[in-house]
TrEMBL record:
It holds the Pfam family DUF892. Signal peptide: none annotated. It comes from the Bacteria. CDD domains: YciF (cd07909). This is Ferritin-like metal-binding protein YciE. Gene3D superfamilies: 1.20.1260.10.
Amino acid sequence: MKTLNEIFEHTLEDMYFAENAITKALPKVAKAAKDAKLKKAAEDHLEETRGQIKKLEQVFKSIGKKAAGEKCDAIEGLIKEADGLMEEASGTALDAGLLAACQAVEHYEIARYGSLREWAKDLGHDEAHTLLSEILDQEKATNNKLTNLAVTAINKTSPSAKAA
Ligand SMILES: [Fe+2]
């Protein structure tokens, strides 16, 4: 890999793999979460993620490439951490930890889509730039939603729950 175009295409394949992995992980989060709003947030983001996969397929098409995934170690690591949490945590710790794990994924995605859309612009891939910017905005909105949920509900516990 030497050119900007090559790193762009490589990272695009990375994110195609990541979004597909996320669609498999989110139902597990929705099932494990105790808080109804957190469950709903995971379910809503699953739908949105499916839409993002379609958008990524459009991005591939717009640059004349076939949609393909390339194993992304980062997302596998983040998902593995969430899986571990579901095995080890319960009660308030589980919901707070799951929400934090979802935010770690969102931050990773925001970093990647931020780079991708700038590269698309530099490479003159206008349609890809627009689509990637749309996905980036969705990820940012999801992250904000999760922050609100954390500070207004999930992290608020009774003194006994805090101590337990
Ligand atoms: Fe996503």
